[in-house]
Design goal:
The protein has 193 residues and is mainly α. 69% of the residues lie in helices and 0% in strands.
Length: 193
């Protein structure tokens, strides 16, 4: 059920993805495209792996140049560990970026719905839709409309639960990607041992 790659469509969504800041929530339309397009999903995964490797290399290089231990960032200035490198040009450029306030946020991005709220909301939705036919309004609808009410109600129930789950996964796709990466890393470590 993967989407056939369309060059213009893929470029549009990939540009949207590339325009995001680090730790910014991926828009729903981009998440859906990444779920359906294997080519774009593979490209995003490769870019994430490359970014992780480069960041790890920068942290190791910054730690090795000074005392051999990676340095922590200065939260007051939002400076980078690499800003303390011995190269004066790189240090000056990174300090100007930090002074301008153009660094990545240290605190997590706010405004997200927590997983606990999503779970509680889903449980409430399922319970309400499950017990509605047994309420007075549900029994009245069954008497007046007959089987048409039951069939349309259960179809609507299934669609609403599917939409809720899709929104949940789409809104938290970065969480699931991180979990999958951790599982893959654990599997690789167990295979090498």
């Amino acid at each position: 059920m993967t989407e056939k790659p369309n060059k213009n469509k893929c470029e549009k969504y990939f540009d949207k993805f590339l325009s995001l800041d680090k730790n910014e929530i991926i828009p729903l339309s981009v998440s859906i495209h990444l779920l359906l397009c294997a080519k774009c999903r593979t490209a995003v995964r490769s870019m994430s792996i490359a970014e992780d490797l480069l960041q790890q290399d920068m942290n190791e290089a910054a730690g090795n140049k000074s005392t051999g231990v990676p340095r922590k960032t200065d939260k007051k200035k939002n400076s980078f560990p690499a800003a303390e490198s011995r190269d004066p040009v790189v240090a000056a450029a990174l300090s100007q970026i930090a002074d301008a306030g153009l660094t990545y946020p240290i605190e997590p991005v706010t405004g997200r719905v927590s997983l606990e709220k999503w779970t509680v909301g889903g449980i409430i939705l399922i319970l309400c839709l499950t017990f509605f036919p047994f309420t007075a309004l549900g029994e009245w609808g069954e008497k007046v409309l007959g089987e048409g009410f039951s069939i349309s109600f259960y179809v609507l129930t299934g669609i609403s639960i599917a939409v809720y789950i899709s929104l949940f996964i789409g809104s938290n796709i970065d969480f699931f990607v991180k979990k999958i990466r951790r599982i893959k890393k654990l599997k690789r470590k167990t295979r090498t041992k």
